[in-house]
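Here is one chain, start to finish.
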Amino acid sequence: MTIPNLSPVGSLPSREYRVAIVANALAPYRIPLLNRLARLPNVRIRALLGEESERFREWKVTLTGSEFEWEIMSGGVVPLRTKLADQTGLFFSPRLWKHLAQVRYDLVVAFGWTMPNSIMTALIRYAQRLPVVLWDTSIPHPPGRLKKMMMPGVRRYFRIFDGYLASSTLCAEYMVWNGAARERVILLPQAIDNEFFSTRAWAAHRERDVLKRELGLDGGRIALYVGQFTERKGMFPLLEAFRSVASANPSAALLLVGNGPLKETILSQRDAYGLRDRIVIHDFVQKTDLPRYYAAADLFVLPSFYDTYGVVINEAMACGLPVVTTDRVGAAHDLVQEGVNGMVVPAGDVSALAGAIERILRDTSLGLALGKHSQRIIAGWTVELAAQNFAKCLEMCIPNETVRLASQA
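Its structure:
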């Protein structure tokens, strides 16, 4: 499915339009987009959140000083574990539901189609006959027995929304499959502040050897993974693949940055393989410090069995790294071009994963060429593009009005 990169046209709206964004919490990489949206002329953005910083992730979010308005709609949460052992939760905020029933917004955007708050938001807005938009990151995956039984209801639910914001082309396909009107699905690129990562990584290159010595990887060619240590992220195939890479390439090293329930198992597996000096684990690193680790690496690997997007791919590409990932990662289908800036392998295919990592680590000139193409590709996948397409969604869902982006100045 191809969705064009739409640009807003037209004149300024004649009055101020109030737009609410309903979400459990905001990931750090969404804040630059909301700040940009806050600069839309005559558009007032307010984030209605379950909590300021998501309890199931280690990243810390501080909204103080944001350009957009925000309010915490405290409520409850039902903790869940997915079938691949990821910790998550279903948030519900009766205070939010009451707020939406009483306060008029010209448009409400609900994040995450399975969240109770999103479902209630859609139903409230539908009853009020006011526009509501679904913003989601989900990608196609085989439905379970329960979902198959519920599909008629799911498709009816999806048709409540007036518009759809998809973080990737795979997400757009999934929305249409679930019942979204194809012509009302707009690509909202899951973008990051590319300049922040590229600039910090460039500066960190001067200290690259220092960090490698600190990590005990002096002189090694480094494959880097950044993320949670969970089964869904493909940690076991990665360890198996690197065992093969290490036996063929004495200079290869694997750096794992993050944390999670599999940490002790990974350490045991590493030692059992005799790779204590070749596989290094570093604790979770906040976004501001990540460019230093990207700068120390020679390639980035994300071996997930299922990843709705994988924003670390954006970060790695902005830092000039080639990418090895799987066909079950949302970002791969938009950002990783086979043989141009990286390689995409079947999820769980240890041999293919090992081959891709080994080829790039062994061939320095290939890695550098792929990394340069990474920066070229990611340069077009920006917060500005996302803001333009969000504005187009506003135009589509608020009849007879147009929204124009303010100048960057």
